[in-house]
Amino acid sequence: MTSAIVFPALSPVRRRDLGTFLMISPYARQRLAEADDTLGYHLADALADAPEDDYSPPVQVAVLLACLALADWAQQELGADPAYCAGPSFGERAALSWTGALPAADTVRLVDEIARTEQEYFATEHRDVVTHSFTRVPELGELLAGLAWYEISGRLDTDFHMVTLREDELDGFKAAISDAGGYSLYTMRPPAHAALFTGVRDRMEQVYARYELAAPRVPIISYHDGAEITEPDALRTALLDGFVRPIRWLDTIQGLRDRGVDRLWIAGPDTMLAKLRGTTAAFDVELCDLRRALVRPRR
């Protein structure tokens, strides 16, 4: 079987589970110690003290470490040997480190810096905009017709969508989703993946300019269009475009299938990708998440 490793996007994760994994897993402990040296503070303490914000810098760095530690665990304990890599949204930053395109210490610094830059930018810009995720709605025409303004921020399955809209229209939009037989999942603040956010892309271009990327040791499959990324310049562009272009997971699936991939190793705290019908229909899925890695085999 030809396999790929996928690092998931940020999704709600229990802070206690994340902290426990970082402290207990031998693969995570090593990466945690290295991150402490890089950051100059104890990440576990910062994680415990972080505000209830899924996107705060300590949470983002902790999720990065968990993704990479789970990839280590999958390779060492389960025999994973991926020929390709993918990482929708936040996951592409973990892909940077795993593929060797950026050293681990630099990836920790980068993720911390990105998180802080996002916080600063959205503290003053686009405060009236959110990104809402929902499912069980195959067609969007009637839903979107009722909005004054919107952008499609993601299509993860045939009936799973992400839409960026004005927050004052959110309640009505959620009601319309329910009326259409759909199910609202979560609302992102700050919002993401929309052409409106060229300002944050410009700021991130300055951030990324401080880091030198190398060619990844295995190809990265784009979450925008399923293309193969093998060169540093193309990788840098893809990372920056993630702030202004939608997630198109079905295109990623097709890109992986076109290259003969039939097994996915999903490494990280994931509440979404492993459950999507498009994912499970196309691949043999191995979910390597916090719970699975911490379960001790029965004697």
Automatic annotation (TrEMBL):
One of its GO terms (biological process) is fatty acid biosynthetic process. Its EC number is 2.3.1.39. It catalyses: holo-[ACP] + malonyl-CoA = malonyl-[ACP] + CoA. Pfam families: VinK_C. The keyword Transferase applies. GO terms for molecular function: [acyl-carrier-protein] S-malonyltransferase activity. Transmembrane segments: none annotated. Residues 133-188 form the Malonyl-CoA-[acyl-carrier-protein] transacylase small domain. Keywords: Acyltransferase, Transferase. PANTHER family: MALONYL-COA-ACYL CARRIER PROTEIN TRANSACYLASE, MITOCHONDRIAL. This is [acyl-carrier-protein] S-malonyltransferase. It comes from Actinoplanes derwentensis.
